[in-house]
Amino acid sequence: MAIERVAVIGAGTMGAGIAQVCAQAGWQTNLYDAFPEGLERGMERIAAFWEKGIARGKTTPKQRDEWSANLTAVADMSIAVGEADLVIEAVPELPDLKHRIFAQLDELAPEHAILGTNTSSLSIADIAGATNNPERVIGMHFFNPVPIMKLLELVRHDRTSDATVAIAEAAGEAMGKTTILVKDVPGFATSRLGVVLGNEAIRMLADGVASAKDIDTAMVLGYKHPMGPLALTDLVGLDVRRDILLNLQRSFDDDAYAPHPLLEHLVAEGRLGKKSGKGIYDWTTGQAEETDLGEY
Q: How do residues 247-260 score in pLDDT, each as one tens digit?
């Protein structure tokens, strides 16, 4: 099946990025969000990314215009997905919300459409269980920032069809991504490793082993990570990392995955990382600056 039309559900940071790369792949792309202000911010985020690319000489006004012509903001889910060949859900990591959306997608999207979920840790089989056609549901885990990060983690549950996997792999290639295929186990391959490393880095920071920047520098220069685990936690979102850890803790019944108290403290304080201006670092200047983490 050739993909021509795509719908992205959720216009937050991830959803906007996914819609952007879909439009750049040449597909007619509908971006939907239940909140008008969220949809507007998502479209603005995409436009700003393209303008920045032009300013840096990486893209041209002609490319921007072509991509923009492929992208439409849609405020009605039934219209957004009604003719889609591929639907990618990118809403917050709330199981009930995802179940509700996939039940709607099962009714509203064409029978041939592939239904992808951008979850980073929730069970794909559980999400697919909200539909009458679980064979067309697959995990499509993108990474932030979506237009730059090359990896796309595809997650198949026991009933995902081979055809669905093949279409998702082709879609990833068309978006310029390298795909990996993993089983539907808690945390998949990437989140399970990433959050454990980040949680341990937070533990080291709380224990006074080293400063945040020195811990990050150790991993960048010592292990060739492109970004330190603490800065990456701020980029992904401390609330997102905390929720993944809690899901792993429940799924494996193993307190080794419990979020460190410092992580819980920062989330409770609303310090969610770069998106809120402060997290482990202070990002208000646009750069990562070390800051007082407070009492926990």
A: 899 989 999 999 99
DSSP 170-225: HHHHHTTPEEEEEES-TTTTHHHHHHHHHHHHHHHHHTTSS-HHHHHHHHHHHH--
pTM of the model: 0.86
Q: Residue 111 in 3-state DSSP?
A: coil
Domain that holds residue 223: 190-287
Q: How far apart are CA 229 and CA 215, in angstroms?
A: 8
Q: Over the stretch 179-208, which tens digit does the pLDDT of each residue have?
A: 999 999 988 989 899 999 999 999 999 999
Answer yes or no: are the C-beta atoms of 186 and 247 closer than 8 Å: yes
Pair 159, 197 in one domain: no
CATH number (domain holding residue 241): 1.10.1040.50
pLDDT one-digit tens code per residue, 57-101: 999 999 999 999 999 999 999 999 999 999 999 998 889 999 999
What CATH number is attached to the domain comprising 118?
3.40.50.720
Question: Are both 195 and 147 inside the same structural domain?
Answer: no
Q: How many domains does the chain have?
A: 2
Tokens encoding 94: 């709330």
Are 31 and 11 in contact by the 8 Å Cβ rule? The answer is: yes
